[in-house]
Design goal:
127 residues, mainly beta, seven-stranded mixed β-sheet, four-stranded antiparallel β-sheet, 0% helix, 48% strand
Length: 127
């Protein structure tokens, strides 16, 4: 499976962006999708995740209420709608999946649960 993230850019604080992650290849084999981000000098951290065949979604506390993850099965695409952006949201955003099996809920926010990653898209929020 291949993941291609897009939609990043430069936005002022309080603005919005929508990231997209196009999944190609064995898409049926990727039941769960996640978004992570990595700011300069910091470790990569969990942002949000969604069950591909269900309605469950998960969010980091820092983005809850501002970000929304969704998926369009017909387009093999996962989205991350980001509203009320803050300068601390500045980072490279990555989409990820685990091939072949679902991720247990307790591991959904762990990078180790994902084995396929997109190339990342830069989001910069100016103050």
């Amino acid at each position: 499976v291949q993941l291609q993230a897009s939609g990043g850019g430069l936005v002022q604080a309080g603005g919005s962006l929508r990231l997209s992650c196009l999944i190609s290849g064995r898409t049926w084999n990727s039941p769960d999708m996640g978004w992570f981000r990595q700011a300069p000098g910091k470790e990569r951290e969990f942002v949000a995740a969604i069950r591909w065949n269900g309605d469950n979604s998960y969010y980091a506390d820092s983005v809850k209420g501002r970000f929304t993850i969704s998926r369009d099965k017909a387009k093999n695409t996962v989205y991350l709608q980001m509203n009320s952006l803050k300068p601390e949201d500045t980072a490279v955003y990555y989409c990820a999946t685990r091939q072949g099996s679902r991720i247990i809920s307790s591991m959904i926010a762990s990078q180790r649960a994902y084995d396929s990653w997109g190339q990342g898209t830069q989001v910069t929020v100016s103050s």
